[in-house]
Design a protein that fits this description.
201 residues; 9 strands; alpha/beta
Length: 201
Amino acid sequence: MTGLERRYDASSFAVLVLAAGRGSRFGGGDKLSAPLAGVPVAHHILSALRPFAFAQKLLVCRSRALWTDAFARDGFSILHNDDAEGGMLASLKIGATSVEDRLKLLVCLADMPFVATEHLALLLSAAAEARDRIVASIAGAYRGPPAVFPVDELLRLPPTGEGGARSLLANARFVDCDADRLLDIDTRQDLFAAQKRFCPT
C-alpha cells in the first residue's frame, strides 16, 4: 500500500470475513492457506479490505492458523466457530452477536480472492443510501456476498442452516459485479485456475 492509495470512510460499518467452512471439496489441507500469487488465498480479501476504516473488523474461523495472523495484525478480532455442521449461518450468528447494533455489517468470504476494493466501495455506498435494506452482489444467477446486512436482520435468523441467510435476499438491493470477481476457491481445480489467472504464462 502506498501513501497515495485512496482511503474509504467506513465508520458506520463493521466487516465480517467468514472462514470457518469445512472445505471438504478441496480434497485435504486448508484451502485458505494455499498459496495464490505469493500469499495465502485468504489474504486476497484482506488486501481488498485494507483501504477501509471500519468501526469493527471480525474474522470467524475454525482455528488459528498462520494465515490468520495477518488479520490479527490488521486489527481483526478472531472469533472461532467449531460447529462446521452449522454452515455459514452459524458463523454469521457468531459475527452478528459481536457487532454493535448501530452498525451495518459487510460480510465477505475468505475464499473469494478476486473481489475488488472498488466493488466493496460500491456496496457500502449503496448500503448507506438504502438505510435498513440489505445490499448484496449480483452476477448472472449469483446473488450473495459480499453483502451488507443490518445486524438486527442477522440476529433474527435461526441458529443453523444454509438457506436462512439467502431468504433475506428476497428484498435486497443488488450491486452488479463482474462474475469473474465473485469466483471462489472450492476445489483444487479452482485453485489451479486462479493461479493461471494471476500468472497466465
